[in-house]
Specification:
The chain has seven helices and 21 strands. With 402 residues, the chain is α+β, with helices and mostly antiparallel strands. It has a six-stranded antiparallel sheet. Strands 2-3-10-5-8 form a five-stranded antiparallel sheet, covered by helices on one side. A five-stranded antiparallel sheet has the order 7-6-9-4-11, with no helix packed on it.
């Protein structure tokens, strides 16, 4: 018979039928900690059994001087993603069960979870010719961004919305939606959602919808109903005014985005204010009904950086995912640096400095510049008064986000 005593940390908690405590505390001899004594060790065993953790052992991790994100800066090559998505198109059905042929980016710092950052989901979605992705809805706010191709229509609350290169298609949560590919070729696009955020706070809901679309929904109009109502700058349809949980405009056309960026740089060349810094035009997609961000939890922006321009290092709380729409360049995030070309994606964790050098030309970019699509969790942090930003060459802790 063994005389070994059970480890109190793995023994059942006294006076309960609960499982062993997951709390583990170790007395350490270091600055800011109490002297290590048998009495302190016994105190820590008592804390463990009662599921208690003293702040003095955790404050360095819980309250650091500045954010120390677990997520890492990382780049994904579009050419490789597209190749793997094409193979999935041959092997993986798109109907119920799999639901969507969406392949998520897994940040290397987040333990293999399908999360691009702790709050953001980013995935390549791939639809074969003639395929339908069945209808469903979910509490997660979402968007689609098209880096290349056309021929797919997303049907949101029975409104067919065309998807073409450069289009940004936001979709507030709990809107029923499906997709159909009316083209003779496959099509891929970027999906962005707030899945990790809603997963972390246990707020997610999901409902299946219809398995098939009606003939009316399989039409291919040039403009959706939402665009005919809301797609006119500065003009809102009075018949549709009222509360909206996110933007009622379901597609922001590339032609409009391109024109806005071009105009900023033209103003700069004429000596007028218009860009956020020399050679760097930036627009934000906004809700035409309220003027704020397009979605309650997601901000979307588009950058155009002229050839030879290097942006000042910029950091902000929260995290972002970028996709190269056109051109080429050199991206530096913290101590990581990569070359990027069309379609490539990269993450910027919280408070990591980002700088971009444009190496674009007329040979690899329609605009002749480096064009970048960005989405972030900034609306969440802004609502909680937790958004902070800093341009290394400018004032610190700016309250007005870039």
């Amino acid at each position: 018979m063994s005389d070994a005593k059970p480890d109190p940390r793995t023994a059942a908690r006294p006076d309960t039928d609960l499982p062993p405590s997951p709390v583990r505390l170790t007395a350490t001899d270091r600055p800011g900690q109490p002297p290590v004594t048998p009495e302190l060790t016994a105190l820590y065993r008592g804390f463990e059994q009662e599921l208690l953790v003293p702040l003095w052992t955790e404050i360095g991790d819980l309250m650091p001087e500045h954010p120390h994100p677990a997520a890492r800066a990382h780049r994904w090559r579009w050419s490789r993603l597209l190749e793997l998505a094409g193979r999935a198109g041959d092997l993986v059905p798109v109907g119920r069960g799999g639901e969507r042929r969406a392949i998520a980016l897994a940040n290397p710092g987040l333990g293999g979870r399908p999360f691009a950052t702790p709050t953001l989901w980013a995935a390549i979605q791939y639809l074969m010719p003639g395929e339908d992705a069945p209808e469903h809805r979910h509490s997660q706010h979402a968007f689609r961004f098209v880096v290349e191709g056309e021929g797919v229509w997303t049907v949101v609350e029975r409104d067919p919305v065309p998807m073409r290169r450069g289009d940004f298609l936001p979709q507030p949560g709990m809107h029923r939606h499906a997709h159909h590919n009316a083209a003779a070729a496959p099509m891929a696009w970027l999906d962005g959602l707030d899945i990790p955020f809603q997963y972390a706070i246990d707020a997610q809901f999901f409902d299946f919808g219809r398995d098939t679309l009606s003939d009316a929904e399989r039409t291919t109009p040039d403009r959706s109903r939402s665009q005919r109502l809301w797609g006119h700058p500065g003009l809102a349809p009075v018949s549709q005014l009222g509360p909206h949980a996110g933007t009622p405009l379901l597609c922001y056309r590339w032609a409009d985005t391109d024109a806005a960026l071009t105009a900023q740089l033209e103003l700069e060349r004429a000596g007028r204010a218009g860009t956020v810094e020399p050679g760097h035009a930036l627009v934000r997609y906004t809700d035409p009904a309220g003027g704020g961000d397009v979605l309650p939890t997601l901000r979307a922006q588009f950058h155009r950086i002229t050839p030879g321009t290097e942006t000042a290092p910029y950091r902000e709380t929260g995290s972002s995912v970028y996709q190269v729409f056109d051109g080429s360049g050199r991206i530096t995030v913290g101590d990581r640096s990569w070359s990027v070309t069309r379609g490539d994606l990269f993450t910027v964790p919280s408070w990591q400095p980002l700088s971009v050098r444009s190496e674009a030309s007329a040979s690899d970019s329609d605009s002749g510049a480096l064009d970048l699509f960005q989405f972030s969790d900034a609306p969440i942090l802004t609502k909680l008064d937790l958004f902070r930003s800093r341009t290394e060459s400018g004032p610190k802790d700016e309250k007005d986000p870039r």
